[in-house]
Design a protein that fits this description.
The chain has 17 helices and 15 strands. The chain is α/β, with parallel strands linked by helices and 460 residues long. The strands form four sheets. A seven-stranded mixed beta sheet has the order 4-10-9-8-7-5-6, with helices on both faces. A four-stranded antiparallel beta sheet has the order 11-12-15-14. It has a two-stranded parallel sheet with strand order 1-13. Its EC number is 4.4.1.14.
């Protein structure tokens, strides 16, 4: 097709699909593992999806048939849900979501429903905030490593730049004042106006919660620089071990001078395992941001049926308490299974307490401490071992040899298969390309050539 017929945005190649994160997805989709029909296929360990507690939600649905059946107290409400709903959202759902967010934060903070802006997923929530806070050519600072999809979500349509805050394993990849200032000065040297700092808490891909000292440092920093802070807290309900999760909303208590510049993103995709429902929200104490984001939300609304169903589910406090506690228990058990299996293979992880993944240290498996060697190892793990994991370079980690490995999107048996494959690969000494198992795959040349035309939805 003649690209002159397209807009510059449609024709540009800045979507980020050439990242190894998305390449791993492509390899998996061409040859997905199935224990019966394709036992030699690739196991998907690059998807941060929570499939551990579906049975709890399914049980609730069986005992509460009305919400999913367009009914309220036995009476049909199909017409009510089918007709136009404005982009402010159903009041009952916003109230239920605000209360649930408060519950996940130990009811230490209260969220006002009127300060919530509903969006069809965390991706549009984050992009909407960037649209509200920055103009093309301006910048946000992001601590590394960060979720690879942010290179698309925050930049592609907004024209905003990302400047990395370089964090290292020497302190567990924690955010420091020095690292923040270095990133800020780097942006200035590139003639980029910094409009804010963007963090994920709990961290994707680290699986760690942001500490109170880090949050205090971040708040002090945005106040000193007169900029914004966005806290993506979509994994807040996945914290399964100490230290507990501390929301930036809690860190702001007693600091009224900062509420207008701090904004939170929340979603039900991870905590309830409902990414297909496309439910997320922006929470802000800035009335102008809420007003602007609400207008923008008309381009990505949540269906009325979904809002109604989830308003009833989230209003059932007995269920939400039972679900949250049991889900965290299951996450902890599955996390332990992965960590133990990796340890048996001679591989360690960053100590983590949240999320649906581990930040895995394979630096000792590299022939040299370079990103070139990291990519060689990653390609062998995907193409020969048959595991789609995410290399640290795709997350902009500054140290070669780290990988994000997900554990909650598969069965226990599948995770066991994955761990056995990896152990066999490592025990073989990584010396022979032909001695280990090899999965069916296309030639590397075709794999690379397909990048320009391939587009994949993300985990968010």
């Amino acid at each position: 097709m003649n690209k002159n017929l397209l807009s510059r945005k449609a024709a540009c190649n800045s979507h980020g699909q050439d990242s190894s994160y998305f390449l791993g997805w492509q390899e998996y989709e061409q040859n997905p593992y199935d224990p019966i029909s394709n036992p030699d296929g690739i196991i998907q360990m690059g998807l941060a999806e929570n499939q551990l507690s579906f049975d709890l939600i399914e049980s609730w649905l069986e005992s509460h048939p009305d919400p999913a059946g367009f009914k309220r107290d036995g009476a049909h409400i199909f017409r009510e849900l089918a007709l136009f709903q404005d982009y402010h959202g159903l009041p009952a759902f916003k109230k239920a979501l605000a209360n649930y967010m408060g519950y996940l934060r130990g009811n230490k903070v209260r969220f006002e429903p009127n300060n919530l802006v509903l969006t069809a997923g965390a991706t549009p929530a984050n992009e909407t905030l960037i649209f509200c806070l920055a103009d093309p050519g301006e910048a946000f600072l992001l601590p590394t490593p960060y979720y690879p999809g942010f290179d698309r979500d925050l930049k592609w349509r907004t024209g905003v730049e990302i400047v990395p805050i370089h964090c290292s394993s020497s302190n567990g990849f924690q955010i420091t004042k020095t690292a923040l200032e270095e990133a800020y000065q780097r942006a200035k040297k590139c003639n980029l106006r910094v409009k804010g700092v963007f963090i994920t808490n709990p961290s994707n891909p680290l699986g760690t919660t942001t500490t109170r000292p880090e949050l205090d440092t971040l708040i002090d920093f945005v106040l000193a620089k007169d900029i914004h802070l966005i806290s993506d807290e979509i994994y807040s309900g996945t914290t399964f071990d100490s230290p507990g999760f501390i929301s930036v909303a809690e860190a702001m208590i007693g600091r009224d001078n900062v509420s207008h510049r701090v904004h939170i993103v929340y979603s039900l995709s991870k905590d309830l395992g409902l990414p297909g429902f496309r439910v997320a929200a922006i929470y802000s104490g800035n009335d102008d941001v809420v007003a602007a984001a609400t207008k923008m939300s008309s381009f990505g609304l949540i269906s009325s049926q979904t809002q109604y169903l989830l308003s009833v589910l989230l209003s059932d406090k007995d269920f939400t308490i039972k679900y949250t506690e049991e889900n965290k228990k299951r996450l902890k058990e599955r996390h332990g299974q992965l960590v133990d299996g990796l340890r048996d293979a001679g591989v360690s992880c960053l100590k983590s307490n949240a999320g649906l993944y581990c930040w895995v240290d394979m630096r000792h498996l590299l022939k040299s401490k370079t990103f070139e060697e990291e990519m060689k190892l990653w390609k062998r793990i995907v193409r020969e071992v048959g595991l789609n994991i995410s290399p640290g370079s795709s997350c902009h980690c500054i140290e070669p040899g780290w990988f994000r490995v997900c554990f909650a999107n598969m069965s226990i048996d599948t995770l066991d298969v994955a761990l056995r494959r990896l152990k066999t690969f490592i025990d073989s000494g990584l010396s022979s390309h032909d001695s280990g198992r090899r999965v069916r795959r296309p030639s590397l040349a075709k794999w690379v050539l397909r990048l320009s035309s391939w587009d994949r939805k993300s985990e968010r």
